[in-house]
Amino acid sequence: MEIQKDKTQNVLVVTVAGRVDTLTAPELEKDLLECIKGGEKRILLDLKDLQYVSSAGLRSFLILAKKLKAEGGEFFITGLQGPVDEVFKISGFYSLFKIFESAEKALSQI
Amino acid sequence: MPLLSKITLPADIEHLQTFLDQADQWAREAGLSEKKVQDFALAAEESLVNIFHYGYRGGEGKVTLAFRLAPETLTLEILDKGQPFDPLSREDPDINLNLEDRPIGGLGIYLIKQLMDEVKYRREGDMNILTIVIRRK
User: Fold this and answer.
1) Which domains are assigned to chain B?
2) Nearest chain A residue (CA) to B106
3) Which region, left, alpha or beta, applies to residue A72 given φ > 0 means left and ψ of -120 to 50 means alpha?
């Protein structure tokens, strides 16, 4: 798993590549909870380069979205494709997050 | 259906990657598509993690993955000697809830049920046996 962070228009754009699974999800969750603690209110998770997500990853996404909501922030997800998109659909995650096709489209609308 | 191969290791997260690499190799040897290889690995991860977390209730124990190939199907059995526990008895999560009401967790077994062609549980002697079947084509 590789995490890349970039601040644009008051949005923290986080690009996650590789795998978010039982072994890697805790690292992503800890990293982004620190960002929220540090005052980030709008986080965009770009998953265009994500190859694999398991329930451990879904769990972390849900924890982060709930935490941001509680802090009055917003959580966006972009770049869903392939097996990651399928897992989102099966799990009913489309109705939990603000989802855009790409980070570029999201940033032009939010 | 001949037993082709199996692997037994302690039920601990430090061995997860070894189990998953083995499952990935079996799936590729069975000629599964890239998508099915990934679904198979996901099912293996979810079932193993379930045992690591709940199977031995913090105590030590082992898990075996066994792999069987038939003309049409690939079968994975996950065996442990933990407390009797049927993971399929758990109610499916309500996937229509909104963010506030949605509970955290409970998706692992649900994903296995949705992505695999067959999932069964049985208790045999002192063993829990979860059987997962995926069609090869």
Assistant:
1) 3-135 (3.30.565.10)
2) A55
3) left
Spatial contact of B66 and B4, defined as CB atoms under 8 Å apart = no
Q: Per-residue pLDDT tens for A66-105?
A: 999 999 999 999 999 999 999 999 999 999 999 999 999 9
Contact residues, A window 40-79, toward B, CB-based 8 Å cutoff: 51-52, 54-56, 58-59, 62-63, 65-66, 69
Q: How many CB atoms lie within 10 A of CB B24?
A: 16
pLDDT digits (tens, 9 = 90+) for A52-61: 999 999 999 9
Strand stretches in A39-96, DSSP E:
42-46, 50-53, 74-78
Cβ <8 Å between B107 and A55: yes
Q: What is d(CA A81, CA B64) in angstroms, rounded to the nearest whole number?
A: 33
Say which residues have a Cβ less than 8 Å from residue B103's Cβ, sequence separation at least 6: B93, B97
Q: What is the pLDDT along chain B (137 residues), one digit of tens a residue?
A: 556 799 999 999 999 999 999 999 999 999 999 999 999 999 999 999 999 988 787 678 999 999 999 999 999 999 999 999 999 999 999 999 999 999 998 899 999 999 999 999 999 999 999 999 999 99
Helix (H) / strand (E) element for A103: namely: helix A103-109
The A residues from 6 to 45 touching B (CB cutoff 8 Å) are 21-23
